[in-house]
Write a structure and sequence with these properties.
The chain has about 325 residues and is an alpha/beta fold. The protein is built from 11 helices and 13 strands. The protein folds into 2 domains: about 120 residues, 3-Layer(aba) Sandwich (Rossmann fold); about 180 residues, Rossmann fold (3-Layer(aba) Sandwich), CATH 3.40.50.
Amino acid sequence: MTTKRIAFIINPVGPRLVTEMEARFPGVAEFYKPDEIAPIADRFDAVMAIDRALPEGFLPAASRLKWVHAQCHGFGFLLNDELIEHGATVTNARGVHAESVAEHAFSMLLGLTRRLAEYRQIQQEHRWQRLMTDTLVGKTMCVIGVGTIGSAIARRAKSFDMKVAGVDIRPVVCESLSSLSGPDDLDSAISTADVVAVAVPFNETTRNMFPRDRLLKMKPGSYLINIARGGIVDEQAVVDMLNSGRLKGAGFDVFETEPLPADSPMWDAPNCILLPHSASFTEFCYDRLLELVSEQIRRFLAGEPLLNVVKEGLAP
């Protein structure tokens, strides 16, 4: 029987994950709240987290720790200087959420272009009224960050007969793109796009990537979709541009402060769809996450290479 112990600090799947882990890896998986884990950090060989920094005091005491897994796609908050300097390997759930998040992005975009919120209000009032709406065919979407999520968004845009431009720091390959630019051409790319979809990871490079002056370079009357992380887009600037009509619509699933404060002006901005960081909140994602976590743990216990490595650790 293995002596390795794996702690789940946050469990995104709920009771089902507990049941499955106990059945598949008896005596290995343990579940803790963030405030419970630091005093016993030296007991664990691996930690399953989300995308927030590990609890204060945990890493210095984690003498056995060899592996940290982010049960999410983004890991910008988790992979801080302290974890980078630690000898543990870091992995994430890249690819697990891509299809669901891309659908989420398009649900917001279609809701905005087809004015579904207004039609819902008309329905509630039992009125028969037509509204002039937008179509996506022939429009240009600029996808900022063409990873697994950005690529999934691009594929859907192409299926709507949109022209799809991409911006990424790497020379990625995505057949749905008609063009790919680097970060130096970001301003030019967004200035001609009818829709800008932000799908970059959150890190020091992308923090405040879209301040007010950059947002003002977007094409007047365009749409903005933020499916990445809060802290990348200037939210107050978006509110001001929606109020002035400079932006035709915006869809946000992520915010700098979560939950979004009740007094945030974003709640009342016109033609703005706000969702509670719920893009991956689907059974489909949970099924895929469960299988990935199970395969990762199997590999870890067997001494096999882990999947989705974002930081290679020191040899044991």
